[in-house]
Design brief:
72% of the residues lie in helices and 4% in strands. By secondary structure, the chain is mainly α. One of its GO terms (molecular function) is L-leucine transmembrane transporter activity.
């Protein structure tokens, strides 16, 4: 039973990690908590439903379409709601992010209604037995897709020119601009990548739970934010680790009989970790000159 719950937790944690990466990348560069990120995840799930149910597309095309749509949405939100407030007080972009979040929730509720929508079957699910553990085809797809996306992000950040510019901007935003880096382009690219990962998470959660709703991004976004802080906000490996850790802890908590408190597990873990390690599991203290 423990092995089975660990597998289920890793599957759930992989989706949390995809969302958490968007939070941590944006914060790492412009120190903004993008509270509209959960709604981008929700929109990605609905784009997946649209592609499968209306355009009769398979999982791969639906996934790519959701990621592209949310990349455009993420860049647009950054340009309209965040960029004009970049030099203002920290409270202004935070309020703007909450406003965007409420707007997207309300818009999707007006379009699709407040009730959950079933995600159309896009793959023929099957169970495979590996010793004492049963793994479904959906779980295999989620783990493979999430692993490929996270590996791709690592490659971009580590070896691609724009990724190196992202790391430079995260170290010192103003100095990076003085050294000739187009910081606006780096920030737009960061929002695009983070939004694409969130959209992928939305589609994968939709096929995993067979349901999407206009309010699915609220709790998932908060949990993913907890995962990002848990791993160390601003740390990409930390967001991955935090998501997996949170998914396993939540699944084990439900299996242990605490299903009524499963949504509180994320916040309880966050409090405990921050009490003993304020920078998160993989975070590092930032030295600021004054």
């Amino acid at each position: 039973m423990l092995s089975q719950q660990l597998l289920n937790g890793i599957t759930l944690g992989a989706t949390y990690a995809l969302i958490a990466l968007g939070y941590t990348m944006v914060y790492g560069i412009i120190q903004l908590i993008n509270f509209a990120h959960g709604e981008i995840y929700m929109v990605g799930a609905f784009v997946g439903v649209l592609m499968v149910s209306v355009f009769q597309q398979g999982l791969l095309v639906s996934l790519v379409a959701a990621m592209l749509a949310c990349m455009i949405m993420g860049v647009t939100i950054e340009r309209i709601a965040y960029r004009p407030l970049r030099r203002s007080t920290r409270l202004a972009p935070l309020i703007s992010a909450i406003g965007v979040s409420i707007f997207l929730q309300t818009l999707m509720t007006k379009i699709k209604g407040p009730q959950p929508v079933a995600f159309p079957p896009v793959i023929n699910d099957a169970l495979y037995k590996l010793g004492p553990v049963e793994i479904s085809k959906v779980q295999i797809i989620i783990l493979i897709v999430a692993s490929l996306l996270m590996a791709g992000l690592h490659f971009i950040v580590k070896y691609v020119k724009i990724g190196k510019a992202m790391r430079a901007a995260s170290e010192d935003y103003d100095t990076a601009a003085l050294m000739g880096i187009n910081v606006n382009r780096v920030i737009s690219f960061t929002f695009a990548i983070g939004s694409a990962l969130a959209a992928a998470g939305g589609v994968l959660v939709g096929i995993y739970f067979n349901s999407v709703s206009p309010f699915m991004g609220v709790l998932a976004g908060l949990k993913a934010f907890c995962a990002a802080v848990l791993g160390g906000i601003g740390s990409i490996p930390g967001a991955m680790l935090g998501g997996l850790f949170l998914g396993v802890a939540e699944t084990l908590g439900v299996a242990g009989g605490f299903d009524l408190y499963k949504d509180a597990i994320a916040f309880t873990l966050l409090i405990i970790v921050l009490l003993f390690r304020p920078t998160g599991l993989l975070g590092r203290p930032i030295q600021r000159k004054v």
